[in-house]
Request: fold
Amino acid sequence: MVYRLLAVRARSRDELRQALLRKGFEDEVADGVLRKFVDAGLVDDAAFAAEWVHERQRNRGLGRKALGFELRRKGVSEDLVAAALSTVDEDDEVERAREAVRRKLRSTTSADGAVLMRRLVGMLARKGYSEGLAFRVVREELERSGVDGEPQAGEEP
Reply:
């Protein structure tokens, strides 16, 4: 069963443990099986976390917060999460955010800059980008596309 799960994608030790427990394996048996996989180098949370961060940032355009949340949910220890997130290049993160904003701008029909600003910043926030980075990237991309993202007089930011 563990081989089958690992054949699909890399998994954390905790994910595999939970799968074994759901199948009715006792705690001691599950831990023993996983110890053998760890000793053989087939289960490595550090390698899993690094690969997860790289793939999810590249393919889904996720920011650090979302990546960290996903890794913690998969049972990866905090020190390994921090180590994996430290490999995220800041320039790559900014570029992924820009790509997401540009993609969204191409499919948006609204001409109201303030509405676009709110929607795009919200989208980046849901993808795990920091507030400062989200505002900066959206403002720059709206300016680049010729849209004024500043709220009009009387509107809330």
About this structure: Residues 29 and 66 are 33 Å apart (CA to CA). Residues 90-106 form the longest helix (17 residues). Confidence is low (pLDDT under 50) at residues 152-157.
